[in-house]
Amino acid sequence: MTWLELAAGVYARRYEELDLTVGLVVGDDRCLVVDVRGDVDQGAELAAAVREITPLPWSVVYTHAHFDHAFGTTAFLPCDVWAHEGCVTELAQYGEQARLKWMAKMESENRPEMAAALGRTEIVMPTRLVSDTAEIDLGGRTVVLRFLGRAHTDHDLFVHVPDAGIIFAGDAVENAEAGFSAYSFNEDSSLVEWTEVMGAILALGPKTIVAGHGDPVDTAFIEKHREGLRELIALKTEIAAGDLTTDEAVARSPYPGDVTKAALETP
């Protein structure tokens, strides 16, 4: 749990818990925290870690609404909380359900401290909403928040630091250390649009892309897994046409079986 300085004033911080990676962008006048971890205690740890880097006023941004990225906000308040407008809908409809689900999971795994922390966690709604693009002036540095399309969720927000050539991608890009899972598919994901999002990332010409889980990656990683998505789309098309069974598709897929099956169930 140390800060990795990716460029002057741009940091990533990776955690063993869920292999989560968060970020920090520092300007002359203020800073921006990219994702806030998963509960009130984890958020407090991150807030203290940010203060090791800078005393500047902060804002936070949620890359998406999932608990591990968006539930640790309390320690940062009062501040602006940026997110895509779809994030509000997701948190309002499913945030409390997710909090209870993960509390139960932690209890079932004999992790009472984390369950208790989730029990004390307040879900903080975004206050600054983005539909397409927004710019945040940090003083001497502008950060651009971009919605590039439906990928991991229908409200993924990318945090682009143009002067450093860095994009924080949330879970639209994942880089698991073991074996590897480039994607985390769910009912809100889209194979076709995710492929287009990968292309949009490449079009921005970044040097480094910070994955929501795992180490930062380069554009070769994005290119490779854009092609992987295209292969998954082709497999799904063959299944729909009756030319391939699901088991045959799994055997031909470039990804592990559980990842492939989840992908084949997406829109």
What is shown here, in short?
The chain is α/β, with parallel strands linked by helices. Helices cover 37% and strands 21% of the residues. The chain has a single domain (3-189, 208-217), classed as Ribonuclease Z/Hydroxyacylglutathione hydrolase-like (Metallo-beta-lactamase, Chain A, 4-Layer Sandwich).
Report what the structure shows:
About 35% of the residues lie in helices and about 20% in strands. It is α/β, with parallel strands linked by helices and about 270 residues long. The chain has one domain: Ribonuclease Z/Hydroxyacylglutathione hydrolase-like (Metallo-beta-lactamase, Chain A, 4-Layer Sandwich), CATH 3.60.15. Strands 1-2-3-4-5-6-7 form a seven-stranded mixed β-sheet. Helix 3 runs antiparallel to helix 4 (about 110-120), helix 5 packs antiparallel against helix 6 and helix 7 (about 245-250) packs across helix 8. The radius of gyration is 18 Å and the shape is globular.
